[in-house]
Write a structure and sequence with these properties.
Elements (H helix, E strand, L loop, with lengths): L1 H33 L5 H29 L10 E5 H13 L8 E4 L7 E4 L1 H22 L3 E9 L2 E8 L29 H11 L3 E6 L5 E8 L3
Parallel strand pairs: 2-4
Antiparallel strand pairs: 1-3, 4-5, 5-7, 6-7
The structure holds adenosine-5'-triphosphate and magnesium ion.
Length: about 230
């Protein structure tokens, strides 16, 4: 395990320089796009993409930083009143903006608007990105189009649900969903780490993650976290 840590440190070190470069270039691009003129909608789309690249490299930088300084993940930053909607919107921008084949649309339930959770926003974002990506992949295999996100508060718990109309959980993987490297995707398309990491991240926030098939086809992932105050 110790040597795995050293490998991680080495990799983190190598990643830091290109990450810093990408981050600087994305900031420059964002400024340049603003001064371009022309189609305003396109311009604001591009500026938003550049800002996402900049912010995401910042997030990667925090990960490499904490690997370098010996930890395995950035220190848990629990916010006891994290608004859910901005995290969901951000995950949407990261996953659905990149889907260009008309294969995916995210429907965000109205109930999400006023909900507050107790969570580390970066970690919850990562989990939602993983769940959205899985939903999009599953939809693609079944010609599905929609992904739904809804959330409800029940007493002191907020349940966040991601549903798709995809191929559903395949029987051969059903009991191993949260194991590292368990995947039904071909090499290069999936590592089988998404759900493992998501489960761990949710556990570190004192929550719970489950996945099941829906009666009407597709899958439903449920995240339960303490409600914010
Ligand atoms: N929404 C879903 N519908 C159907 N099957 C799913 C869904 N989400 C996950 N799975 C199944 O669980 C497996 C593991 O998912 P996981 O996210 O851990 O890895 P992955 O998506 O294969 O690879 P990656 O590391 O890129 O996330 C998937 O390969 C797939 O078989
Ligand atoms: Mg995945």
């Amino acid at each position: 395990l110790a040597s795995l840590g050293r490998v991680a440190q080495g990799v983190a070190h190598e990643l830091n320089t290109p990450l810093a470069t990408i981050r600087t270039l994305a900031s420059d691009m964002r400024e340049a796009i603003r001064s371009l003129g022309g189609d305003e909608a396109l311009q604001s789309d591009l500026a938003e993409s550049a800002a996402l690249i900049r912010d995401e490299t910042g997030r990667l930088g925090r990960i490499t930083h904490s690997l370098l300084t010996g930890g395995s993940l950035p220190r848990l930053r629990l916010n006891s009143s994290a608004p859910l909607l901005p995290i969901v919107e951000r995950a949407r921008a990261l996953v659905f903006a990149g889907v260009r084949d008309g294969g995916a649309e995210l429907d965000i339930g109205d109930s999400v608007e006023n909900l507050v959770v107790s969570a580390d926003s970066d970690r919850l974002l990562q989990v939602l990105v993983n769940l959205f990506q899985n939903a999009v992949d599953a939809n693609r295999g079944a010609g599905g189009r929609h992904v739904w996100l809804s959330a409800t508060r029940r007493g002191s718990v907020v349940e966040i649900v991601v549903e798709d109309e995809g191929i559903g959980i395949q029987p051969e993987i059903e009991g191993r969903l949260f194991e590292p490297f368990a995947t039904t995707k071909p090499p290069g398309e999936g590592t089988g780490l998404g759900l493992y990491a998501s489960y761990m991240l949710i556990q570190t926030m004192g929550g719970d993650l489950t996945i099941e098939n829906r009666d009407r086809g597709g899958a439903r992932a449920s995240v339960r976290l303490a409600a914010g105050t």
